[in-house]
Design brief:
Length: about 300
C-alpha cells in the first residue's frame, strides 16, 4: 500500500473499527516498551488494515483544541520559576488565568510521559475557562522543552532522572499555589504519567494539597497513602489492565487510611480516553469525567 493510500485509509478509521490488539500495541508504544517502527510493523501483522489503524492512533493536535489560546475568557502566558532540587533548578510552565481580577483557586495540570504537548495546554485553558488559575508545567524544559512531537518527547522524558522530574512537579504545585492570583487552594489533575504523579503529589504534599483528580495513573505507593490528606476523584478506563490491576491494593490502602475518595470506571474506554487528539478519545466518557472533575474542584477548592 502506498503512503497516500494509507493516509486516505487513516482518515476513514473510527474508534469502533480499531482492533483491540492494535490498541494494546499502541499502549506498549506509548509507554516506551516498543518503538514507533516496531509498533507499526506489529500492528500491520496482527490484522488486516492494522497499519491504517496504527497510523490513525497518532495524535492530531491541530484539530483537537477546544479552547483557543486567543479566547477572550482567559489570559495565557509562559512563566519560569525556581525549582530547587529539580533537573536544572528552574522550570517553565503554561499559566492560564480566567478573565477578571481574581484571586482564583489553583489547579496544576500534569502532562503524560512526553512533555507539555498541545493537548495538555488545551486542558489548562479548559480549566481556566471554568474559573481556575491553571499551570501546566513542562517537565522537559530543562532539556529544551517539548520538542514538537511525542516520539522525541517520550525519549527525552524517559532519559530524565525521575526523582528530579517529580521534584519539578512538586515545585510547580507550590509555585501555582503561592501565586499572587491564587486563593491558596490547590487542586491537581494529570493524565497517564501525570495521573500517577497526581497520586504521588497527594502523598508528598499532605494537607498542602486540597483535591486530586488522577486520570488512569499509577497508584501511590502503598506505604505513602496514609500521608494523603486531600480527597481524590479517580478516573479509570475500562480496557486498561496494567493500571486497573493496581486499584484493589490502592483502594484497600485508601480505605485503611480513611482518605476520602471516589472511583469512576468508564465502560468500553481505552487508556487515554480523555485525549481528544486520537481515536482513543471517547467523547461521552471524556465529557462526563471532565464535568465530574470541575464539580469536584469547585466543591473542594471553594
Amino acid at each position: 500500500m502506498t503512503e497516500h493510500a494509507v493516509a486516505d485509509e487513516v482518515r476513514g478509521v473510527t474508534q469502533i473499527e480499531i482492533d483491540q490488539r492494535v490498541y494494546d500495541l499502541y499502549d506498549e508504544y506509548c509507554h516506551g516498551r516498543i518503538d514507533r517502527r516496531e509498533f507499526l510493523l506489529r500492528a500491520a501483522a496482527v490484522t488486516a488494515g492494522g497499519l491504517a489503524m496504527a497510523q490513525a492512533l497518532f495524535p492530531r493536535y491541530a484539530q483537537a483544541a477546544m479552547v483557543s489560546f486567543t479566547d477572550q475568557r482567559i489570559k495565557a502566558q509562559y512563566v519560569t520559576y525556581p525549582s530547587p532540587g529539580g533537573t536544572s533548578g528552574q522550570m517553565r510552565g503554561y499559566l492560564v488565568q480566567p478573565a477578571g481580577q481574581g484571586p482564583f483557586p489553583a489547579v496544576l495540570v500534569i502532562h503524560e510521559n512526553r512533555g507539555l504537548n498541545p493537548y495538555i495546554e488545551d486542558v489548562a485553558r479548559r480549566a481556566a475557562v471554568d474559573g481556575f488559575l491553571a499551570l501546566a508545567p513542562d517537565g522537559l524544559f530543562p532539556v529544551g522543552g517539548y520538542p514538537g512531537n511525542d516520539d522525541d518527547g517520550r525519549k527525552l522524558q524517559a532519559g530524565l532522572d525521575q526523582a528530579k522530574l517529580r521534584t519539578d512537579m512538586l515545585n510547580s504545585a507550590r509555585y501555582v499555589k503561592a501565586h499572587a492570583l491564587s486563593t491558596g487552594k490547590l487542586g491537581v489533575t494529570g493524565f497517564c504519567w501525570g495521573g500517577g504523579t497526581t497520586n504521588y503529589l497527594a502523598a508528598e504534599m499532605g494537607a498542602d494539597m486540597h483535591a486530586g483528580v488522577p486520570f488512569y495513573g499509577a497508584s501511590a505507593a502503598t506505604e505513602s497513602v496514609p500521608r494523603i490528606k486531600s480527597p481524590l476523584q479517580i478516573h479509570y478506563a475500562d480496557n486498561d489492565k496494567r493500571i486497573n490491576d493496581m486499584w484493589p491494593a490502592f483502594e484497600t490502602a485508601l480505605k485503611a487510611a480513611k482518605v476520602p475518595h471516589e472511583m469512576h470506571m468508564y465502560p468500553d474506554t481505552q487508556h487515554g480516553f480523555h485525549n481528544n487528539s486520537t481515536p482513543r478519545y471517547n467523547e461521552a466518557a471524556a465529557k462526563l469525567a471532565w464535568d465530574r472533575t470541575i464539580a469536584f474542584f469547585k466543591k473542594h477548592l471553594a
